Amino acid sequence: MPQTPPKTAIDALVFDAYGTLYDVASVTAICDSHFPASGAKISEIWRQKQLEYTWLSSLMGRYQDFWQITAAGLRFACGALKLELSEETFRLIMENYLQLDSYPEVPAALEGLAEKMPLAILSNGSPEMLIKVTQHNGFNRFIKEVLSVHELRIFKPAPQVYDLAVRKLGVAKEKIGFVSSNAWDAAGAKAFGFQVFWINRFDRHPEQLDLPPDHEIRTLDQIPPLIF
Amino acid sequence: MPQTPPKTAIDALVFDAYGTLYDVASVTAICDSHFPASGAKISEIWRQKQLEYTWLSSLMGRYQDFWQITAAGLRFACGALKLELSEETFRLIMENYLQLDSYPEVPAALEGLAEKMPLAILSNGSPEMLIKVTQHNGFNRFIKEVLSVHELRIFKPAPQVYDLAVRKLGVAKEKIGFVSSNAWDAAGAKAFGFQVFWINRFDRHPEQLDLPPDHEIRTLDQIPPLIF
Question: Checking CA distances to A25, which of A51, A74, A95, A127 falls within 20 to 30 Å?
């Protein structure tokens, strides 16, 4: 008799924001509109520097919020590519970050999951950034808690960031499913003790950190069969 | 009457190792010999992942030594490029890290500086890696202390790493000149309170971390006129 694989016992789901729920590809399009043919390169360097600056400022003990870090990353990217970034263009590109759309499967997936358990966002984003982009997508009706690292003044993957979700949701870490498309974030969440779903949307190579996720899937709508 | 600019008062010099004293470009050549035409891409991804893993493992509180992290970075780079890395090739490429040559101006520059003040290396490298590459270049006669982050179990730019040099050299941080080609390392050293010389060998764009170095120079032989 074929055995059904045991389901993962999860009482709450916590989602990363950028790249997981919200599609950051539109950033490339707006960069391209201001700097023709350079959009892809700008957004690649920008994202890399944005992440590096979260890690570096955390390790130095010199927190700056994610809006400042995102701005610094954009300035670096344009500077490194010898592109003149006017204050007007800077403002327009940055504002795009507050109006990111979600990936196509996300609204229906969140709606279905929200009927079963509490959902939260746990992100590096500053509170204002997270509130705006979540409102823009109308996700407030699905998401119980929008949690920012800001009150801790340190970024992922510091364990105290993941612990914020435990404290705010009142759910044991073993019963929390953490969902991220960022492989390093998935590794940090696994190190902390969450049950981890790595959304590998773009067929990326897994990190070599000896912290594999519990589940590697492609889109959010693949979560329910794993837990219900 | 023309004024001579004031000299920087420095009682000891502390050098980063990889990319600052030791030329990591030979890594590209050996990767290219095993994976024709892919050497540059492998070493670019490898270096990026190596750094990322130092920051990520530090923030997670899961230190692994730099040899393990360097190995993980190499495995990631080959995996991401869909290149088959045999254990034999892995071993040969990794061993190259223990035999890096210095940049051409380094031996004479260190010799001259060592006559004036104590010199130290402060590196992410594991003690064994640092001892081997320093012996390979015969720099033990110039370098008083070879300091590794290993005893602290955290990587740069955590401030306690830079403080290790203060403790081991017995020189106040304001009187230590820190020399690195890594802009983020220079920023970390500046945040800590060293006098910082950024060796911008390859005309890189400065980091946007509001921590500019005291001096931006191209090679180590430009240090003496700034301090003597």
Answer: A127
